[in-house]
Amino acid sequence: MKSTLRAGLSGGLLALAVCAALHAPPSLAAREAQAILKETCQGCHTPQADGALSRISQQRKTPEGWLMSIARMQVMHSLQISDDDRRALVKYLADTQGLAPSETDGVRYALERRLNTVEKFDEQTSQMCGRCHSGARVALQRRPAQEWERLVNFHLGQWPSLEYQALARDRDWFDLARKDMVPLLAKRYPLDNPAWKKWLDSAPKAQALAGDWSFSGHAPGKGELAGIMSVTADAGDSFKVSVKGQYADGSPFNGEGSAILYSGYEWRGNVNIDGVSMRQVFAAQGSALQGRMFEAEHDERGLDFVAAKQGSSRLLAAQPGYLKAGTETEVTLIGSGLTGKPSFGDGVQVLEVIEQSPERIKVKLKAAANARPGLRNITVGALKGPTLSVYSKIAAVKVVPEFSVARIGEGGGSTPKVQGRFDAEAWGKGADGKPYRIGVFPAQWKVEAFDDRARDDEDVKFAGTMQADAGVFMPGDAGPNPARKMSTNNAGNLKVIAAVDDAGKSLSGEGHLIVTVQRWNNPPIP
């Protein structure tokens, strides 16, 4: 049974490739997406009732998911399509067969390129799907049971050795995939979900996002930043974007670019910031934007981003978000519609309002010497927002991310290095003895061998260097290294150590860094 199915799959894939080559025109000018679907895709995807196309109409995906599907048709099946037409198709399919905001909740880390996220799926999903790609890739698409089964068949047809790889050869992978995983996935990620239909009916028009946005951000290795992002509506659901801001240390964060909105809320932007090309992956809902910005060529170099549209009322952030008992400091509140008197809770006194505008309030604060350690709710008039951490001493330091991967690169090759970037989080103990997060603190950084094997292999010497004052790890060059045993490459297994000073007392935290080989395959969804 399996052998017959595998042979049929191989023949079917070959026929599909030939079909694409015969029926896809060499190039098409950008035009209505439905016409593109008919002329470019209908040669292989057969028409169905109500204008549907086989396979295509039985799926819902993110913009990145649809882009990957079309790219796979190009790479594997010789589809010929122009860049403009591909963009038009991704836009149309994401708008009409996308995911509702609630359906991407919890797995947006994959879209935002948070590649050091440790996923938490059930064991069966992790072993059957997550050993080759992220579980998020599965969770960011919707299909009926028949389409999930076809996806299983596609995997086995495209990668016949799949059953003989780790976590597959020790079980009847194909039967488990068909009999156990297909029903599970169809129930967990169904094509028909009232949330998507409800979102289509209620999604705001893209033009509602035009205007000025007050934003706050944090970049590991660099610190906090804030500013204004101006958005001007362009043709269709696209925008022109201008960013003007600065980091807490005074360095600029300015630039311009463009953006487009998919599915009524999926904001994707390309912005040149101070000469560096950066991408924006945000979720836009109402008067709020939230997500991540990262360098186009180095997605590990990025920042968390949250913004509120001017004209709305929202308190976004306090920079810095902590204050030591018995001391004074300046704190800046970032938001929109900030009117009224700021308050920081018991034991915290506002000594002076240094400056105040609807987007920014800078105050001088003092915490009483006997101020109770813990979190205080910050309010501005009727607005409630983030918390202020009041502490008397630091109880512990955590390295964030706790587990990270960096990658060797360059060394005469074209594959770039992937850095490791870390923050040192200080934690305190409240009056109830429970731990609470104080905030990100300056630290002194270093790496050590993670275990005896790493020590024997001198991984600290070869794997790369840690920037002592910023928590940025630069891995070594790619390629064989004659100075290492057996001329192996510069991979390594390292312990990341952050030391934070608290009134003359040094506290340290540890993380784990794997320095591994180049990232050869880097799809939009990992």
From TrEMBL:
Gene Ontology molecular function, alphabetical: electron transfer activity; heme binding
Gene3D superfamilies tied to this protein: Cytochrome c-like domain, Immunoglobulins, Quinohemoprotein amine dehydrogenase alpha subunit, domain 2
InterPro entries per record: Cyt_c-like_dom_sf, H-AmDH_asu_dom2_sf, Ig-like_fold, Ig_E-set, QH-AmDH_asu, QH-AmDH_asu_dom2, QH-AmDH_asu_dom_III, QH-AmDH_asu_dom_IV
Signal peptide: 1-29
Annotated keywords: Signal
Keyword Signal: yes
Domain Quinohemoprotein amine dehydrogenase alpha subunit haem binding: 33-196
Annotated Quinohemoprotein amine dehydrogenase alpha subunit domain residues: 207-309, 314-391, 397-525
Record-linked SUPFAM superfamilies: Cytochrome c (SSF46626), E set domains (SSF81296), Quinohemoprotein amine dehydrogenase A chain, domain 3 (SSF69298)
Protein name: Quinohemoprotein amine dehydrogenase subunit alpha
